[in-house]
């Protein structure tokens, strides 16, 4: 199983923002991982969403618990979050339930932010909160306008920095079994204008 794992970093050291970061991780990651590892949704998510979140029967819970051997991490980027104390609770929805505001210093191409330190935090999060289940980095890339040049210093620096932080996470004990950067993928709406791949094809 692979998930889109964007790291949510508290913008400040204030408790409210730290809690906002934790909520964002629960709603974006725990929602998918905890059922297949532990047989149920995260407790904090159930408290926030209440009866609007479907529940598993005992049989369903038993069936899905421990049903994955590893988790694939599409860990391309990170973003800052702050607590949103003015969210509209009258119209509950997925992002409203998070109770966070997202912000970032844009440093890349079309909303993907350069934050290599986030990859270390991602793999350490898996080690700390999810019993250090084996993981593979299943997506990692940096989108730039498509050109014919192979003098690609920007992406070389991207991979060098991300791999350095990945090594730090592995050295701390994270069970990362492999990494699969995009070899020749052109994806989503940028298919013809942006390349995130590692291999140049003439």
Question: Can you describe this structure?
Answer:
It is a single chain. The chain is of the alpha/beta class and 202 residues long. The protein has a single domain, classed as Glycosidases (TIM Barrel, Alpha-Beta Barrel), CATH 3.20.20. The chain contains six helices and nine strands; from the N terminus they run E-E-H-H-H-E-E-H-E-H-E-E-H-E-E. The protein has a four-stranded parallel sheet with strand order 1-3-6-8, covered by helices on one side. Helix 5 (117-129) packs parallel to helix 6 (153-171). Mean pLDDT is 83; it is low at 106-110 and 184-189.
Short descriptors:
202 residues, alpha/beta, TIM Barrel, 3-stranded mixed β-sheet, 6 helices, 9 strands, Glyco_hydro_1, glycosidase, hydrolase
Question: How do the strands and helices of this protein lay out in sequence?
Answer:
Blueprint: E1 2-4, E2 7-10, H1 15-38, H2 43-49, H3 58-64, E3 71-74, E4 78-83, H4 94-98, E5 100-103, H5 117-129, E6 135-139, E7 144-145, H6 153-171, E8 176-179, E9 194-195
Q: How many distinct helices?
A: 6
CATH architecture: Alpha-Beta Barrel
**Could you describe the largest sheet, including whether it forms a barrel?**
4 strands, parallel
> Outline, from the CA principal axes?
globular
As laid out across the biggest beta sheet, the strand order is 1-3-6-8
| CATH topology (level 3) name | TIM Barrel
Cα-based radius of gyration, to the nearest Å: 18 Å
Keywords: Glycosidase, Hydrolase
Pfam family, one: Glyco_hydro_1
Family: Belongs to the glycosyl hydrolase 1 family.
InterPro entries: GH, Glyco_hydro_1
């Amino acid at each position: 199983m692979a998930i889109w794992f964007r790291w949510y970093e508290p913008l400040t050291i204030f408790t409210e923002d730290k809690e906002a970061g934790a909520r964002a991780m629960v709603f974006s990651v725990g929602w998918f991982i905890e059922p297949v590892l532990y047989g149920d949704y995260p407790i904090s998510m159930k408290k926030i969403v209440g009866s609007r979140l479907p529940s598993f029967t005992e049989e369903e819970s038993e069936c899905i618990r421990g049903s994955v051997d590893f988790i694939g991490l599409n860990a391309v980027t990170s973003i800052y979050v702050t607590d949103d104390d003015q969210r509209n609770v009258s119209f509950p929805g997925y992002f409203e339930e998070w109770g966070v505001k997202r912000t970032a210093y844009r440093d890349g191409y079309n909303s993907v932010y350069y934050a290599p330190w986030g990859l270390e935090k991602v793999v350490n999060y898996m080690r700390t909160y999810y019993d250090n289940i084996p993981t593979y980095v299943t997506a990692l890339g940096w989108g730039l306008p498509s050109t014919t040049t192979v003098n690609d210093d920007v992406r070389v620096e991207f991979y060098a920095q991300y791999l350095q932080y990945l090594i730090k996470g592995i050295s701390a004990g994270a069970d990362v079994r492999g990494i699969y950067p995009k070899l020749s993928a052109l994806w989503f709406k940028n298919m013809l204008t942006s390349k995130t791949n590692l291999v140049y094809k003439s």
